[in-house]
């Protein structure tokens, strides 16, 4: 069995690692702790770059290994792997920093799109924010806010893309009502709002599309 990384003392993270992703072409490895992201070369285990990433949430490589996407705090950062130390696109995501631990980031099957979602409280209402971004440019494609006025705090499943990237499925489970959860489906290329599918009689733990 070949050892991919030699043992290197004194390099790496100084706290728990929350994410570890290898690029599809096997050239790069990205690791992240709560406030930093490190990019490694897989052939020799050397560190290419160490980036500050406060309130880290998620990271991932695009399918062709051309870009590394980092979601942290209130921003989405896309780094071009042709020159990862210099080339980047940054977009600010309108999510409150203190809410970042409840936010999620998921990619479409081909990783050309990413969906960022999270809950926030506004005027005594719980508001679910969900936004779709084009991964390569970090540009917003569509967004939606779902208000749950009069209901208790809620948590949501990570949104799920359909296999053709067109539809997004998400479910909200309301903690004050143990038997209430609601599923929604959204045509992300349409100007129409998400369509309510059904109310469930129990909490929902997983939702998938058929092939």
At a glance:
The protein is mainly β and 211 residues long.
Describe the structure.
- It is a single chain.
- It is built from no helices and 17 strands.
- Strands 13, 14, 15, 16 and 17 form a five-stranded antiparallel β-sheet that branches. It has a four-stranded antiparallel β-sheet with strand order 1-2-3-4, with no helix packed on it.
- The chain starts with 18 loop residues before the first strand and ends in an 11-residue tail after the last strand.
- The protein has 211 residues and is mainly β.
- Strand 6 (67-72) and strand 7 (75-80) form a beta hairpin.
Measured on Cα atoms, how large is the radius of gyration? 19 Å
**What is the averaged pLDDT score?**
78
Coarse structural class: mainly beta
Query: Please, how many helices?
Result: 0
Shape: globular
Provide the helix percentage: under 10%
H/E topology pattern: EEEEEEEEEEEEEEEEE
Q: How much strand?
A: over 45%
User: How far apart are the first and last residues' alpha carbons, in Å?
Assistant: 35 Å
Largest sheet: 5 strands, antiparallel
Overall strand count: 17
Low-pLDDT stretches are: 96-101
> How many individual domains?
2
């Amino acid at each position: 069995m070949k050892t991919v990384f030699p043992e290197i003392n004194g390099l790496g993270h100084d706290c728990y690692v929350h994410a570890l992703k290898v690029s599809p072409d096997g050239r790069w490895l990205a690791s992240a702790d709560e406030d930093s992201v490190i990019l490694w070369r897989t052939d020799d285990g050397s560190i290419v770059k160490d980036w500050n990433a406060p309130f880290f949430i998620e990271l991932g490589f695009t399918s062709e290994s051309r870009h590394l996407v980092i979601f942290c705090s209130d921003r989405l950062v896309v780094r071009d792997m042709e020159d990862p130390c210099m080339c980047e696109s940054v977009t600010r995501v309108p999510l409150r920093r203190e809410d970042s631990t409840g936010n999620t980031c998921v990619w479409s099957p081909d990783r050309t799109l990413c969906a960022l979602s999270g809950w926030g409280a506004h005027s005594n209402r719980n508001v679910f924010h969900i936004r779709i971004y084009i991964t390569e440019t970090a540009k917003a494609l569509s967004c939606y806010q779902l208000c749950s006025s009069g209901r208790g705090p809620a948590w949501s499943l990570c949104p799920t893309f359909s296999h053709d990237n067109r539809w997004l499925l998400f479910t909200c489970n309301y903690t004050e009502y143990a038997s209430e959860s609601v599923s929604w489906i959204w045509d992300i290329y349409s100007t129409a709002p998400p369509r309510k599918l059904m109310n469930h009689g129990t909490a929902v733990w997983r939702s998938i599309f058929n092939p």
